[in-house]
Amino acid sequence: MKHETLAEAGLSYFPCRYGSSRLFFRGPRRPLEGRYLAFVGGTETYGRFVERPFSAIVEDMTQLQCVNLGLVNASVDAFLNEPAVGTVCHDAALNVVQVMGAHNMSNRFYTVHKRRNDRFLRASSVLRAIYPDVDFAEFCFTRHMLGTLLARSPERFVILRTELQAAWLARMNQFLSEIGPRTLLLWFSDNLPSDIPWEQRDNPLTIEPLFVTRTMIDSLRPGVRGVVMVQPSARARTSGTQGMVFGPLDALAAANVPNLAAHHEAAEALRGALKTSFG
């Protein structure tokens, strides 16, 4: 429960549920009557350490109800496993689905927690056979495990990374087909999508969304109304944690998520896309 009801330094996230969901989303809870927009995504959509994330800013701009279905550290798995999310999205005038990483998903190599997707649960016999020299009992989080496996053998890691990318594409196509074509994809990252092989990039496990390439995004375009690319500007990045709310122990975490200026830029980009989508 602690994960879902997180409150930091006096900032309340008003955790709420929709329908029969077991998940707690970023609140306050919005009405689901009439015309509304649904925002699905991970930490960036949730808006850690900011009082009004980009979905709330879009609501201010458009006067449309905006339902924030963001979850900290979520992958598309969390939403596929929750029928209430599909219902909210199916009835929305438009959905905005953040592009989330491919690492926090269960796949044929390892299993993650159904709701806390960054939690590593167990490795499959296939992954243990590929990495017989690794003790998987040491890992609690997916990124820690992946960093260890990459450092141990970049050559073997390609097998794992390729599987994660294939699983991500399959799950994203499934989710998008379930919620319908009234959807915008949102790329919200310091880096624009690229097809450079992941193992050849600098600090590869710090690049978000992890393991998602330009080709993967392009393959999803036929099933959505558009893709909104948001790369925070230099001005936004240099504003640091100005306007964010956090305690002393969370200073490092706050510096590594989109800041208030970046959320405003995302909202501006989405407002332009919404005008086109709604004619």
Q: What is the CATH H-level superfamily?
A: SGNH hydrolase
How many E strands? Answer: 7
SSE series = EHHEHHEEEHHHEHEHHH
Overall form: globular
Query: What's the mean pLDDT score?
Result: 94
Number of domains: 1
Q: Would you mind describing this structure in some detail?
A:
The chain has 279 residues and is α/β, with parallel strands linked by helices. The protein has one domain: Rossmann fold. The chain contains eleven helices and seven strands. It has helices spanning 43-46, 54-62, 76-80, 83-90, 125-130, 142-152, 154-179, 214-220, 234-238, 251-255, 260-277, and strands at residues 36-41, 65-70, 94-98, 110-112, 120-123, 183-188, 226-230. The strands form two sheets. Strands 2-1-3-6-7 form a five-stranded parallel sheet, with helices on both faces. A hairpin with a 7-residue loop joins strand 4 (110-112) and strand 5. Helix 2 (54-62) packs across helix 11 (260-277) and helix 6 (142-152) packs antiparallel against helix 7. The N and C termini lie far apart (42 Å).
